[in-house]
Write a structure and sequence with these properties.
heterodimer, A: alpha/beta, Arc Repressor Mutant, subunit A, Dna Topoisomerase Vi A Subunit, Chain: A, domain 2, 2 domains, three-stranded antiparallel sheet, 17 strands, B: alpha+beta, Heat Shock Protein 90, Ribosomal Protein S5, domain 2, 4 domains, seven-stranded mixed sheet, 42% helix, globular, binds adenosine-5'-diphosphate, binds magnesium ion
Chain lengths: 383, 728
């Protein structure tokens, strides 16, 4: 009985699957096969999901990135507190398989609507809120070590780039030097089967990543990327995966160094930390996302004095800021860096934070014409 | 239905809906000679003048004599005061303090009167070795007057005793002896009679027959409150004889009273100012609870609406006769000891101690005397107060064997269960009778029985009864009505019913429109009141239900200080446990220590509390086993429900992923779910064979009943109706 052969789906796929899709589909089907085997053996089906908690994340000093540990959480069908989550896991699995089979992608919200329905015979929904679906998607990602893009899911587009590079996006040629004032919107899936760089037509020598769209616009309007021969990106705050993956590919495939211009506050430090080492939640993707060589150009705690800013630009720290700053200071990758410790300590003793925009108080183009060029020239950054 | 007349004069309405029985004499009574009735009334009016309508008038009479005191300039002189100082008769005292005896309000007066009469009947029957059959009839005679008749098939009372028993306070057979019995202070029935005379002017009417060969004797009596003496109103102060058979029946009819013809027995009829209610502290409740604790009695109860409820006996054996015992020295109070010494004539102190008390041998008596420094041969009469006190203290200091406890007759676990099962709805019953114990030299014994899981009373009400109840109630709001009418219904549950019925919290009970009544009934039926329901406590002393002063009673106090959480019930600290639980606690003793004359609460002696606690724990443990088992079964059932809910989804998802047969996989998963939640299966089958395996697995010990609540008669229709169904 247990050895009963599993008959694969007879349904002929409408689309020819890429080798990568085939691999993902196989993994998804594997989860289903385990249910059948368990049921044949009168056993309780389960999945072991790698734990996505801080406790299960390790910093690898050698690779200089965050890595996921080996701890897993068992999710069983016949456990009162897990039954529903198990059911949802299987729903997401089958939903992703369907997307792959049909050669389509959808947003996280799209998948949520695909899978949301009322369970037969009871007044209960499979999902009530998108958040419930999103966490299960992350579970499936770590469970199969397939990234979201491989599951044919994309997040909302966020972030933009301009600069001296030409690429192909789903067959369309994009010249990033001719993107007008809006720039090229970085898609959420930037894998090589979607985006291909034209190495020969890349004139940029480095990447300048800024935190926010408003600052990015300043740099774009001043044609900074043209003058300094670089690629200019932003991630609308905490950069989404598409942006991080794009930076990672640009950095590694085109060997472009990355410099970040972020606000001088704990949140800015944190964004830098995520770009450099990876995030706790997505530690399993650090390999493909983290850029340990990324440099922190500014703003610095010393900039208030160094740039002789006026008192009006100071924003006082609040309790959360202070707490957060101390946490950041204790991150293993900052812990042993005296410069970083001084930086954070200085901010705490300042007891205020500075936004990149504060430099505008000096002059509208101070940041593009003086501040960043000076830092680059002096190689004055934090690592 | 809301317009039905509140007053019903006769118990034989033409539109009988329920089972109605007209006691034999009633119908004829209507035809009774008007002349006779008139003269009886005239007599009654005279009575009114003598005794006064209210106790206050006794006051006036007492003040008449010493009028001269005012002559002096001072407010009063020693002389004038001396002339006011006189004996207060017991009857006078109690006429002024009737609340002490349970006549505080018209509602309670009715209950107390019935109770005294019924208790006497049961005691008399049991003492005479007769299986008791009791008739209780309550009739409304005017807006605030009721006539109650209580008859028994007991031994009857000899003619010359009748006036004393019914017309003299503190005259009884039970006060002077130590023996487990219902009545105790001997105040009972004559006080009820006195209350009746005072409030209505109508005398107490007694028929009693002691043998089929002798005529029944009929007395009309009133109590002379000043002298604590009976006054016989009929037969020229002699009462009248009533012959057996046809002729007697005619006689009885003439006197306007009822009599169920019996070879022997007693019927007492009292008319009094009263108010009839159902629910808590009602006559109905008293009779109901009495039936539970006395499974050997048959009771016919005709309520003021004329419907008769029958409680048939569940046991054909009388409880064993309680033995009379001598008092134990430890239990005697100083005053009583002094009185006994004075009464005991021509005895030495040693003789006195060893013959008037239990467990005192001459040797022990000598020891007491030595300790008290009193000569063992001193004559009792010669002893003064100091010696009495010395003896009293010496008794406490001397080691005396505890009294014999075989004088106590508990109901017994089996009968407790029978009684409870027949009357109270539930799915789990258990009982525990503790071994006898002693407090202050008095033997006593505690029994506890418990019923769990019954449907709430609210669910056993039909449309007609609900509208009756609404009409009768004193409660101003619906919420109050629900709480006061339905036993064990907490305010939480009442609120939930109100909400379900979409009724306002302040809506008046009496002004519900028919549609609203309909909604209320629906809600009562649908709301699961077991949540938030509190434990229903039935307290008994010598088989008599205690209905008032719950909070002051040692039983209640012990229940609330017991930790019921460990037995699977929820309970806030020091509060009543919650849940659909009925518990009865019975204390049997030769001398039940009440907190007051009205005999409504047990005094908190540590020995008694300890025994109660042990009894509660014994049934609590069994309950805990059952509740936990039930919870587990339910949890497993819930668990399975949850699994089942998701299995289809999982099977479908898997089918879409790898094309495996959906239904086949679903079937397999269901099998696994069943295995994982195996406990729930026991419940699925428990109407059949599995229940036995279950019982074998959980050992509850003896005297436990487990029933399927759905098929248990008492769960479907509570109260008398349930009993009738169970009997068929
Ligand atoms: N129905 C009755 N049948 C026979 N004897 C009765 C009856 N009612 C009362 N008695 C006798 O009258 C006595 C006095 O009754 P009561 O005044 O109620 O005091 P108690 O019941 O406390 O002794 C009883 O002890 C009993 O001997
Ligand atoms: Mg009595």
């Amino acid at each position: 009985m247990a050895k009963k052969k599993l008959t694969p789906v007879a349904k002929a796929p409408k689309v020819k699957l890429s080798p990568r899709d085939e691999k993902t589909a196989e993994r998804l089907t594997g989860l289903a096969d385990r249910v059948v085997t368990a049921a044949n053996n009168r056993k309780d089906p389960f999945v072991d999901i790698p734990s996505r908690t801080l406790a299960n994340v390790k910093y690898s000093p050698k690779k200089k990135i965050l890595e996921m540990g080996n701890a897993t959480n068992r999710r069983q069908l016949f456990d009162l507190s897990q039954a529903k989550a198990y059911m949802r896991t299987m729903l997401v699995t089958s939903g992703c398989k369907k997307l792959i089979d049909q050669g389509k992608s959808t947003s996280l919200r799209g998948l949520f609507y695909m899978l949301k329905h009322t369970i037969e015979g009871v007044k209960e929904n499979t999902f009530d809120e998108q958040g419930e679906c999103d966490t299960i998607i992350e579970d499936v990602e770590v469970l199969l070590s397939s990234i979201r893009e491989e599951l044919h899911l994309y997040a909302e587009n966020r972030g933009a780039m301009v600069g001296g590079i030409v690429l192909t996006d789903k067959g369309d040629e994009i010249n990033c030097a001719r993107m007008g004032s809006g720039g090229y919107a970085i898609p959420s899936i930037v894998e090589p089967d979607v985006i291909i760089f034209d190495k020969k037509r890349c004139t940029a020598k480095f990447i300048l990543h800024v935190e926010k769209g408003t600052v990015w616009q300043r740099f774009n309007e001043d044609r900074f990327w043209e003058k300094h021969n670089c690629i200019l990106t932003h991630g609308a705050g905490q950069p989404p995966r598409g942006v991080r993956r794009m930076l990672h590919r640009l950095h590694n495939e085109l060997e472009l160094p990355l410099y970040c211009v972020l606000d001088n506050d704990p949140w800015g430090y944190y964004i830098y930390s995520v770009i450099k080492q990876g995030s706790i939640n997505l530690a399993f993707e650090s390999q493909r996302m983290a850029i340990p060589e990324a440099k922190y150009l500014g703003l610095r705690s010393i900039d208030f004095e160094r740039c002789q800013l006026s008192d009006s630009v100071k924003i006082s720290l609040n309790d959360t800021d202070r707490k957060r700053a101390k946490q950041v200071a204790q991150y293993p990758w900052f812990e042993k860096k005296p410069k970083w410790q001084t930086e954070i300590r200085k901010m705490l003793s300042n007891d205020f934070k500075l936004e990149v925009e504060s430099l505008i108080s000096k002059d509208i183009s101070y940041v593009t014409e003086e501040y960043v060029p000076a830092r680059l020239r002096d190689q004055d950054w934090l690592d | 239905m809301a317009t039905r007349k509140p007053i019903k004069k006769r118990s034989v309405p033409a539109t009988a809906t329920k089972k109605k029985a007209a006691p034999p004499a009633v119908a004829k009574r209507q035809a009774a000679g008007k002349k006779l009735a008139k003269s009886a009334e005239a007599e009654a009016d005279e009575v009114l003048d003598v005794t006064g309508d209210e106790a206050a008038e006794v006051d006036d009479a007492a003040d008449e004599a010493p009028a001269g005191g005012k002559s002096s300039g001072r407010r009063a002189t020693a002389q004038s005061m001396a002339s006011k100082q006189r004996d207060i008769s017991v009857s006078e005292f109690f006429a002024k303090n009737r609340h002490l005896l349970g006549f505080d309000n018209p509602r309670k007066a009715l209950l107390t009167t019935i109770k005294e009469a019924v208790d006497n009947s049961l005691d008399a029957c049991e003492e005479a070795g007769i299986l008791p059959e009791i008739w209780v009839h309550i009739e409304q005679t005017s807006t605030d007057r009721y006539k109650i008749g209580v008859q028994d098939n007991g031994p009857g009372i000899v003619k010359k005793q009748i006036p004393l028993i019914f017309g003299k306070l503190l005259y009884g057979s039970k006060f002077h002896r130590l023996r487990q019995s219902r009545g105790q202070q001997g105040i009972g029935i004559s006080a009820a009679g006195m209350y009746g005379v005072q409030t209505t002017g109508k005398p107490v009417k007694i028929i009693s027959r002691i043998s089929p060969k002798k005529p029944a004797h009929y007395y009309e009596i009133q109590i002379d409150t000043k002298r604590n003496e009976p006054k016989i109103l009929n037969g020229g102060g002699e009462g009248v004889d009533i012959a057996y058979g046809e002729k007697g029946a005619k006689d009885i009819e003439k006197h306007g009273i009822e009599w169920v013809d019996q070879p022997h027995g007693t019927r007492v009829t009292i008319e009094l100012e009263a108010k009839y209610n159902r629910g808590r502290g009602s006559v109905d409740e008293y009779l109901h609870q009495t039936a539970i604790a006395n499974p050997h009695i048959t009771l016919h109860y005709t309520d003021p609406e004329g419907s008769t409820r029958e409680y048939q006996r569940a046991a054909d054996k009388l409880p064993p006769e309680p033995k009379e015992i001598l008092p134990h020295p430890y239990g005697i109070e100083l005053g009583r000891l002094a009185a006994m010494l004075a009464e005991a004539e021509g005895m030495s102190i040693t003789q006195f101690l060893s013959t008037k008390f239990s467990r005192v041998s001459p040797a022990v008596a000598k020891k007491i005397c030595t300790t008290a420094k009193v000569s063992p041969r001193a004559m009792t009469r010669k002893l003064g107060r100091p010696e009495a006190e010395a003896l009293y203290h010496a008794i406490q200091a001397t080691k005396i064997a505890p009294p014999a406890t075989d004088c106590i007759c508990p109901i017994g676990e089996e009968l407790l269960l029978k009684g409870l099962y027949q009357v109270v709805p539930g799915e789990f019953y258990c009982a525990a009778t503790r071994p006898p114990s002693v407090y202050r030299g008095n033997p006593f014994q505690i029994e506890v029985a418990l019923a769990f899981g019954g449907a709430a009373a609210t669910q056993n009400v039909d449309k007609e009864l609900l509208s009756d109840l609404l009409e009768e109630t004193d409660a101003r709001t619906i919420r109050q009505f629900l709480i006061s009418t339905f036993n064990g219904l907490g305010s939480d549950a009442a609120d939930r019913i109100m909400k379900a019925a979409a009724l306002g919290t302040r809506q008046t009970a009496k002004q519900l429109k028919p549609k609203e009544q309909e909604r209320l009934l629906q809600a009562m039926q649908n709301v699961n009141v077991a949540e938030g329901q509190t434990m229903e406590v039935m307290r008994y002393a010598n088989r008599v239900p205690l209905q008032f002063q719950q909070a002051a009673c040692a039983i209640t106090q012990t229940i609330t200080s017991t930790n019921w959480r460990s037995y699977g019930l929820s309970q806030s600290r020091g509060g009543m446990p919650k849940g659909p639980v009925y518990i009865m606690v019975h204390i049997a003793s030769v001398w039940v220590p009440f907190t007051s004359e009205s005999k409504e609460a047990i005094a908190s002696y540590p020995e008694i509390q300890k025994e109660i606690r042990l009894g509660l724990q014994a049934v609590g443990r069994k309950l805990g086993m059952y509740v936990r088992k039930r919870q587990r079964v339910k949890q497993q059932g819930d668990r399975r429900d949850i699994f089942m809910r998701y299995l289809k989804e999982v099977a479908t998802a898997v089918h879409e992923l790898n094309g495996v047969d959906r239904d086949n996989l679903y079937g397999q998963l269901v099998t696994v779910a069943k295995r994982v939640t195996a406990d729930a299966d026991m419940k699925l089958d428990d109407r059949g064979r599995k229940i036995k395996e279950e019982a074998a697995e959980t050992d509850y010990g003896d005297n436990v009943i487990i029933v399927d609540p759905m098929t248990h008669a008492a769960a479907i229709k509570r109260g008398p109706a349930a009993v009738a169904v169970a009997d068929e």
